[in-house]
Amino acid sequence: MVRVKICGLTRLGDALHAAACGADALGFVTWPGSKRAIAVADLARLRRELPPFVQTVAVTVNATPAELVDLWTKTGVSAVQLHGDETPAAYRGLPMPVIKAFRAPPLAADLDAWEAMGFLADGAAAGHYGGSGVVADTATVEALAATGRLILAGGLTPETVADAVRRTRPYAVDVASGTEAAPGIKDPDKVRAFIAHAKAAVE
């Protein structure tokens, strides 16, 4: 069964609802340039209110390794997601699990060099580091799918996720804008439907 990450969360109620609906992971954007940004102190408080065994991911953009360790230590998140222009050589040996996002097809050597638990395929939009609602490039999806660790993102909605799962067979799917009422504010019905449709797509 495909895993589901609900991303771009900023409110405890939305996070608890996503977890109750069966989300496997909850994503929180800590990059200040995002319209879904959450402060590190707020994320730390929110995470402590979540039920056990719910995975949490802090989404970052071009943070230094030292900043990532500080973020991980302060918030207690399960993993960090690198959603910028990071290169593998600079991020070796991090103490926490890492997800690396790509908006264009990576070189095979780059994939081999990354110490990552998963590779996220996202849509490319000028001036955006994710959450744009743009569908991921096919070549990017195919390159990451070959690793067996594809996390499919980019333009997914409750209406499109089942077909996307059947076509690409990802390890997981990730959604932000496709489950929102407004940036950073989730629509409960969309969250519920997205998770249900994603998990029912492949038995």
Automatic annotation (TrEMBL):
The keyword Hydrolase does not apply. It comes from the Bacteria. The keyword Isomerase applies. Its EC number is 5.3.1.24. This is N-(5'-phosphoribosyl)anthranilate isomerase. Keywords: Amino-acid biosynthesis, Aromatic amino acid biosynthesis, Isomerase, Tryptophan biosynthesis. The gene is trpF. Pathway: Amino-acid biosynthesis; L-tryptophan biosynthesis; L-tryptophan from chorismate: step 3/5. Transmembrane segments: none annotated. GO terms for molecular function: phosphoribosylanthranilate isomerase activity. One of its GO terms (biological process) is L-tryptophan biosynthetic process.
